[in-house]
Amino acid sequence: MTSQRIGLVLVGALGLAIGVLGTKLASSDVRANHVAPGAEEAPVVVSQSPVDSSLLRAEIAGAVRSEVRRALVEAPTRAAEAPPALPPERTAEQEAARVRSAEVIESAVRAGRWTDADRHALLTALPHLTREETEQTLRALARAINAGELEVTTLRGPI
Amino acid sequence: MKTSIGIALAAVCALAIYSSRAAAGANLTDAVHVGEAGFSGSLEDARIAASSTDVIGCTTVSNGGAFCFAVDAGGNYKSCGTSVAEHLEVIRTIGAVSYINVAFDAQGACTYVNVENSSYSLLSEP
Q1: Chain A residues close to B106, C-beta within 8 Å
Q2: Which of A11-15, A57-61, A107-111 has the largest mean confidence?
Q3: Of B53, B54, B63, B94, which to mutate for an interface test with A (greatest number of A Cβ within 10 Å)?
Q4: Please, where are the H alpha helices in B53-96?
Q5: Which of residues 106-125 of B touch A (CB under 8 A)?
Q6: Which one of A141, A146, A153 makes the best mutation probe of the B interface by having the most chain B beta carbons within 10 Å?
Q7: Who has the most CB within 10 Å: A8, A102, A104, B23?
Q8: In chain A, what percentage of residues exceed pLDDT 90?
Q9: What gap in Å lies between CA B126 and CA B113, rounded to an integer?
Q10: For each of chain B's 126 residues, which pLDDT tens digit applies?
Q11: How far is CA B110 from CA A55, A96, A112, B84, B103, in A?
Q12: Could you give the CA distance from residue B74 to residue B54 in angstroms, rounded to a whole number?
C-alpha cells in the first residue's frame, strides 16, 4: 500500500471519528436544552460529560479499525488496476524508420509513381515500425494508389 | 503396321480418359474485378487471364500488417492496408488457388477480407 493510500485512510478515519463525536455532542445538547412542560425554567447547565467517553473511544477505535481493514482488503485490487506501463522508449533507428517511410510515400506521390526503388526503401523501413505505424504506412500507400496519385510500376506488388 | 495402330488407339484412349477426368467437377474461371470500394479474384485465374495486367494478392509483414492489392484488365489498381488481427488471420490462409474478396474505405484501410479455398478455383487443366 502506498503512503498516499495510508494517508487517505487515516483522513477518512479521522473524518468518521469527528462525525461520530459531532453526533454525540448534538445529542447531548438536545438533552441539556430540553425542559419539561410546566417545570420552572432553570438556568441551563450543560453537562460537561453527558456522554460515556469510554464508549465513544471504543466506537472511534472500532471505526478506525474497520476503515483500515477495508483499505487493506481493497489494496490488492487497486494495485491490479494500476495504469499500464508506458511503452518502451523508441530508439533513434525506429524514429528514423518512421520518418523515412513517410518520406518515401510523400516523395513518390510528388513524382506520381511507385517504383521498385520506393518499394525497396519502404520494405527496408517497415521492420522497424510498430504495428500501428505499419498500418498507418500501408494505409497511406493504399490511399494514394486508390486515389490515382501513384502509378504503380513495380515488377511485383507495391509491397 | 499393327503395332502403329495399337499405339495410336492407346493414345486416343489415354487422351479420352484424361479429358474426362479433367472436366469432372464444377469449375469457375473469372477475371479480377476491381471496384471503387473493393476487389476480388482468384490468384490462379489472374495468372492465366487473357489480360496481362490481371493481378491480385496480399503481402503480410511480420510486425503485424498486411497489404492487399489488385489490378483488373483495364489497369485499375486498388489496394488497402490492415493490421486487424482477424484480417491477418484470414489473409494467412491465402494459397495458390485462393479466391480473394477485399473491401476497403476511402482512407486505404481494409474493412473486410474474405478468402475462399475450394475446388472451384482449381484449373480445369493442369
Answers
A1: 143, 146
A2: A107-111
A3: B63
A4: 85-91
A5: 106-109
A6: A146
A7: A104
A8: 42
A9: 28
A10: 556 665 555 555 444 444 444 456 777 677 899 999 999 999 988 988 888 889 999 999 998 999 999 999 999 999 999 999 999 999 999 999 899 999 999 999 999 999 999 988 776 555
A11: 71, 27, 23, 9, 6
A12: 8
**Contact residues on chain B for A131, CB-CB shorter than 8 A:** 63-65, 83
Residue pLDDT, tens place only, B23-46: 567 776 778 999 999 999 999 889
Contacts of A105 in chain B (CB under 8 A): none
- pLDDT score at A142: 98
Q: Is B112 helix (H, G, I), strand (E, B) or coil?
A: strand
Record: contact B62-A146, CB cut-off 8 A: no
Burial class (CB in 10 A: 0-12, 13-18, 19+), B64: middle
Torsion angle of C-alpha atoms B85, A129, B57, B97, degrees rounded to 10: -60
Please state, rounded to an integer, the average pLDDT across all residues of chain B. 84
Q: Is B82 on the interface with A (CB under 8 A)?
A: yes
Minimal CA separation from B9 to chain A, in Å = 46
- Please list every residue in chain B whose beta carbon sits closer than 8 Å to the beta carbon of residue A98: none
DSSP A15-55: HHHHHHHHHHHHHHHHHHH---TTS--PPP---S--S-HHH
Nearest CA in chain B to A129: B63
Chain position carrying cell 470500394: B37
Q: Whole-angstrom Cα distance, residue B125 to residue B45?
A: 12
Sort out which chain B residues have CB atoms less than 8 A from A139's CB and list them. 80-81, 107-109
